[in-house]
Amino acid sequence: MSKKKIGDVILDVNNISLRFGGVKALSDISFDVREHEIRAIIGPNGAGKSSMLNCINGVYKPQEGSITFRGQTFKHMNSRQVAELGVARTFQNLALFKGMSVIDNLMTGRNLRIKSNLLLQALRWGPAEREESEHREKVERIIDFLEIQAHRKTPVGQLPYGLQKRVDLGRALAMEPQVLLLDEPMAGMNVEEKQDMCRFVLDVNDEFGTTIVLIEHDMSVVMDISDRVVVLDYGKKIGDGVPDEVRANPDVISAYLGTSH
Amino acid sequence: MQTTFPRLLLEHAAKRPTAPAMREKEYGIWQSIDWRGMADLTSHIAAGLHQLGLRRGEHLIVIGANRPRLYASMLAAQALGAVPVPLYQDAVAGECVFPITNTEVRFVVVEDQEQVDKMLEIRSQCPLLEHILYDDPRGLRNYDEPGLAGLQEVIAAGAVFVQQHPEFFKNEAEQARAEDVAAMFYTSGTTGNPKGVVHTHASLLDRAAAGARFDKLTESEEVLAYLPPAWIGQNIFSYAQWLACGYVVNCPESTATVTIDLKEIGPTYYFAPPRVFEGLLTNVTIRMEDAGALKRKLYSSFMEHAKKVGPALMDGKSIGAADRLLYALGNLMVYGPLRNTLGFSRVRVAYTAGEAIGPDLFTFYRSIGINLKQLYGSTETAVFVCLQPDHEVRADTVGVPIDGVEIKLADNGEILVKSPGLLKEYYKNEKATREVLTPDGWYHTSDAGFIDASGHLKIIDRVKDVGRIKGGANDGALFAPKYVENKLKFFPYIKEAVAYGDGRERVCVFINIDLEAVGNWAERRNLPYAGYTDLAGKPEVLQLIKGCVEQVNADLSRDALLAGSQIHRFLVLHKELDPDDGELTRTNKVRRGFIGEKYAVLVDALYGGKAEQFIETQVKFEDGRTGKVSATLKLLDVQTYANVKAAA
Description:
Chain A: Keywords: ATP-binding, Cell membrane, Membrane, Nucleotide-binding, Transport. The complex is a heterodimer. By secondary structure, chain A is α/β, with parallel strands linked by helices. Chain A has helices spanning 49-57, 79-85, 102-108, 118-122, 126-146, 161-174, 191-208, 219-225, 243-248, 250-257; strands at residues 9-20, 23-34, 38-42, 64-69, 72-74, 87-89, 179-183, 211-215, 228-233, 236-241. Chain A has 2 domains: 1-86 and 178-261, Rossmann fold; 96-176, no CATH class. Chain A is globular, with a radius of gyration of 19 Å. The N and C termini of chain A lie far apart (46 Å). Chain B contains 21 helices and 28 strands. In chain B, 48% of the residues are buried.
């Protein structure tokens, strides 16, 4: 196996603080993500992991701090801007269009790249049709990659949970992102499904060079596939480093095993 | 037929260069290759393999599903005078060692990463293996092994060579003669090492042509290639007959999409083993049970009519006008849409073989207008020995001997065949060859059977399995285990059965339930279950199966010859019999001896009269890991019936 080349810092999170009224979801969080790496964010439930992802994604606007993406600093990102910068995400509880088929769900991921407008598409204007074919081809490659050919036309709501998660991943991949934010992609899966998902994540990272920020609870997954790990607890960062360092960190151990406060 | 595979390819490419030869579904759409394209691809691969050093007389092992480039590799090998040997793509790595060392191959062409991994795993046991060539590069990006290369590279190098030597392919192909060895197929023997069945261009193409004439196949047939290429039937339907007739072979996207692809293609000429037809019918029945009341009523009443009228219509018998009209209405409303859902709208001829097919199952398909017929043959006979003619189709026969075939029965009931399609020999196994091929050209099929009044062949069982009951009320009666097992498998609830009784006083049976059918049955009775083992142990399910066994007994009691084969005791196994565990062959035939040894404790318990027995078995998972499954099985007694007709 050739050694992976991890690049420079692509995403920099600086002193982010997020409050919901009196609840301090995130307190002064700073970490960076390098290009082509797999960065895991771990921590007990309620630590602020999803909130962190939502800040990067532009869903939440932090009260303090900034995010730097490829040298451009933003105090607030809005989701559309973030998507256009090449950041895609999956959702912890899925956010698929249950009534639409798998292929249609994946095609929605191409939305930002489709240039022809609604009217032209409705009239099936030549160039609009050609564009649809091109996007369809890209989406078919993703279907092939995720091995879901048999479910192309199935309404997503009828698929088993594990396959829905794959479709969610597929939709994010359809954006051809530079950075992929995965919010607990292995949640609710058995060992075999987790192994499959890990393989897809690793393949995406290896084949397309996509940088991956991964929230995950399964420690074996985190230790096995991530390059570096950030540990959050009660909205504060308590660990940051390679998996072995983090595993030996006494603060991290006590956060998971629990000590009396 | 005095021609060869490569010559046929060149003829089609010359006469109909732009006609489609093969299609493959990739990225959601069917991509066609025409005959010109197929010939070019084959010549590039041949040139590439030649440059890598493949020589006349060598073998080339091919492992994968049906893919145009794997077929082209087989044709390329034949053009170079090498012998392609397809292996089962779902074989575990260890099973591939014998064929590779037996044929002393230096080259294998495989489909994808899964097969490459298997080859790398056993490489140390196959020192002669030099080149591993793969078709689909997915996942192989970071592999760095000596001799591992993509077919794409071979084709590119070959294309350059062909440009410099334009007559190369034609010259090589012209050297092949009809009596040269064209291919080899390993039969998954039920005992010992597999035997390599050697066939020539002549034997395969003769049978292919005979079958094509029998069913009037033309170049516009559409065939779906979904069965393993290692099985000779697949080779005959999608390779030999493909080249003999020049029709179109369609390769599905993956095993998971076969039913979808079947509907999209709408083949005109189709083959499937009986269990596939059973599975389709179970599917239809289950879905009909979920349908609304009106649809259910429509379905049941029209199916009644179809059973009455359909087979007769198909057989060309005369039907009253009113019946005909009603059938036409049924065709519009039920049979047509049903055929469409199954993917059989355009099927002109559908064959099944390999095991006996239940009469109800057979009637179902024929009654809705699908020309399902049976055939008889084997790897050693290049398949086509007997076929059922269109208007003489019955569930209990396998057809009449076709063009070129002579059949004779030995004293012990064994069927002997003489045909131009017979194997040349078993590879490197003179002893085995002499055991089945007599000097005067008769092949011993090791099947027992007889020819009935209408000239149709009926199969009883494997000769060596036909036994006798010893002792007790039925002493001396004929016991044909397969016959009994087949009757049990005609029920949708029973997936597999293994019968014991030779040399014993009574007949005892192991049964595997069909998870889908029984699961559905259980759900309709609000019977919860936690998986296969749990369902197989439920008392309600055991009673259901008991009912099926007793019905088989009632049926057997009416058979003059086999009334003594009635079943006395049975049990339902806690796990499905599986080829990966060595219990079934790769073509899903039971290995009665192996199963008897592995489950000896159960056999003893059945014959010892025990009411229940604990069993723990080792199972092998798909990735090679092993685990244990255990349960306490109940052993049940079954009612037998007095012989209605006295045994001969």
